[in-house]
Design a protein that fits this description.
The protein is an all-beta fold. Helix content is about 0%, strand content about 40%. The strands form six sheets. A four-stranded mixed beta sheet has the order 2-6-5-4, with no helix packed on it. A four-stranded mixed beta sheet has the order 8-12-11-10, with no helix packed on it. Strands 14-18-17-16 form a four-stranded mixed beta sheet, with no helix packed on it.
């Protein structure tokens, strides 16, 4: 400042231009991916873009891991200018498991019956495939299996809670014929040539499951001579077994006769 007499005085003022504005950013989107490898997945997380009013060389960093595992991973991005202004952004990388396990179909089982209701079957676990891991394998099999078909449902649950089911058919069959013990052969004296009444003893039949019917083809009356009677035992599964019994009607009784009287005559002709 100078007056009209030429006297002057000076002082200084500091003008400071500062940069306190953080860069502006264009952030990458969150990412959701289905898991393909339980050992870890490489993920292209994209790129964060930044701009600044002053600095054209923005430093951009993130803390992303090399590989990602099942679950949510928070990636923190940072954009900084040369004045030290920075902005942070978080990106979520979600590795999910929505794929159900694969059950390799267990083989159906066919087994001969030992009982009607209480047949023991030892089931082997089916093979289960899953990327993440199996939490449980269950089935609804009964403790013992009845005669006939039983459908067993297997359920596999993986570590992510995904469920798969598969069915297995257990068939308990009865293909074994019953045994039959027939009565001893019968020999009776004839009382008629064609109509001899004979009461036959019963045959004895046995089966692992159950006998349904025991029959024979004996006639109502028997003729003189030999008759073959066929006995048949049938179980409840339709299996049958037959054997034969011989019934013989014999005639060992001699005839009865009425003889004529003795005759006495006086000779009348010597020729």
């Amino acid at each position: 400042a100078t007056d009209t007499s030429g006297n002057s005085m000076s002082d200084t003022q500091i003008v400071t231009v500062v940069d306190t504005t953080a860069p502006t950013i264009t952030s990458p989107n969150d990412i959701v991916l289905e898991i393909t490898d339980n050992n870890g997945m490489l993920v292209n997380i994209g790129q964060l873009f930044a701009s600044d009013q002053v600095d054209s060389n923005i430093t951009i960093t993130n803390d992303a891991p090399e590989i990602f595992h099942v679950g949510d991973t928070i990636v923190t991005w940072s954009a900084s200018d040369f004045s030290g202004n920075s902005v942070l952004f978080t990106q979520t990388i979600s590795i999910i498991d929505t794929t159900s396990p694969q059950i390799i179909q267990p083989a159906d089982i066919i087994q001969e019956a030992e009982e009607v209701l209480s047949n023991l079957i030892i089931l082997e676990n089916p093979q289960i495939l899953d990327i993440v891991g199996i939490a449980s394998i269950t089935n609804n099999a009964p403790e013992f299996f009845p005669l006939g078909d039983t459908v067993v449902t297997w359920t596999a649950t993986d570590d992510a809670g995904n469920i798969a089911t598969s069915t297995q058919l257990i068939s308990i069959i009865d293909t074994i014929s019953p045994s039959i013990t027939i009565p001893e052969p019968v020999i009776v004296e004839a009382s008629s040539e064609q109509e001899n009444y004979i009461v036959l003893d019963n045959a004895i039949a046995q089966d692992k499951i159950e006998i349904s019917l025991v029959t024979n083809d004996a006639p109502e009356v028997f003729p003189l001579g030999e008759t073959i009677v066929t006995w048949t035992a049938t179980d409840t599964s339709g299996n049958s077994m037959s054997d034969t019994q011989i019934v013989t009607v014999v005639d060992t009784t001699a005839p009865t006769i009425t003889s004529p009287n003795d005759i006495v005559l006086e000779i009348t002709d010597n020729n």
